[in-house]
Specification:
- This protein is mainly α.
- It contains 13 helices and no strands.
- α3 packs across α4, α4 (63-85) runs antiparallel to α5 (88-95) and α5 (88-95) runs parallel beside α8.
- The radius of gyration is 20 Å and the shape is globular.
- The protein has one domain.
């Protein structure tokens, strides 16, 4: 397969991956069970799928590998709580505030100095985030938004700890995170045992919504640029609430919709600008190398 076909295949895989991820809100809301039970069972099934794919996972039990696993478990658990307590739109869009926390955490943990665009992004996304809370004045909705925010922070920590393993094998952190989530959550299944439909949706969550998409993403990212991966996976926060609106009829408030547009647009524009800057820097570096080569 030539490079062009590999690129097309990668883009198709990313579109399918993001679409499968987007089923999370609808499926979680359709299961009558404790949020921890949903998170744990979904992760247990996903963990099995990933181990079958990796075959021989390499656990080094380093701090970063374990920390990434804990952050992942926190991310998936708080996301399920958020989806159960507030609208699917609020849950997924608050999780996608992660880039602002990545920028802040990177300055502290990775010593990567935030750029001016990062601070602009932080202010805009924070403004959009405030609208979610203004739109959810009841206790349940407010708690759901808090869990959504915690999911975004966990997502950011997961990203930073995964980045620390860029020269290793970070997929093991995802397997470990799913195992942690399973251990914590599965015992809660006995608090409210799902019916047949609930079990069916749990299997779909573990296999179709979490397990297979992560495998597809790991393959697609090999032949897609960071920009393509970032922009295409934005399909998830867009489709997630749409499935819920169409099938369950849950409609987010006007302020939440405005906040969501601000969050998604800001994050997408940031991805484009940073990618363009990186491309320009690489071109300048190549030109300098060529000049140096000619001079020598």
């Amino acid at each position: 397969m030539n490079n062009k076909n590999k690129k097309v295949s990668a883009i198709i895989l990313l579109v399918v991956t993001a679409t499968m991820w987007s089923l999370g809100g609808l499926l979680i809301k359709s299961i009558n069970a404790h949020p921890l039970a949903i998170a744990g069972t979904r992760s247990a099934i996903s963990c099995i799928i990933m181990i079958l794919y990796v075959k021989k996972p390499k656990f080094n039990w380093s701090f970063t590998q374990i920390a990434a696993g804990v952050a992942y478990a926190s991310m998936v658990i708080t996301f399920v709580f958020s989806t159960k307590l507030t609208t699917a739109a609020n849950a997924i869009l608050l999780e996608y505030t992660a880039p602002i926390f990545v920028a802040l955490l990177s300055a502290w943990m990775l010593k990567e100095k935030p750029k001016a665009i990062d601070w602009v992004t932080i202010m805009l996304v924070f403004g959009g985030m405030v609208l979610f809370f203004l739109d959810s004045l009841d206790a349940k909705g407010f708690a759901g938004n808090i869990f959504g925010l915690l999911s975004g922070i966990s997502y950011a920590l997961f990203t930073v700890f995964m980045r620390m393993q860029k020269n290793g094998s970070p997929i093991e952190s995802v397997i470990l995170g799913n195992a942690i989530s399973a251990i914590v959550g599965i015992p809660f299944i006995f608090m409210s045992v799902p019916d047949f439909k609930g079990w069916l949706f749990l299997v779909i969550l573990g296999v179709v919504q979490l397990g297979i998409p992560y495998i597809m993403y790991s393959e697609a990212i090999k032949n897609a640029s960071a920009l393509e991966a970032s922009i295409i996976t934005m399909i998830e926060p867009i489709l997630n609430p749409i499935w819920v609106v169409l099938i369950i009829g849950e409609i987010p408030g006007v302020l939440s919709i405005i906040g969501g547009i601000i969050v998604i647009a800001t994050v997408a524009i940031r991805c484009v600008i940073l990618s363009s800057t990186k491309h320009t820097d690489e071109e300048n570096l190549n030109e300098k190398m060529e000049v140096k080569s000619i001079a020598s």
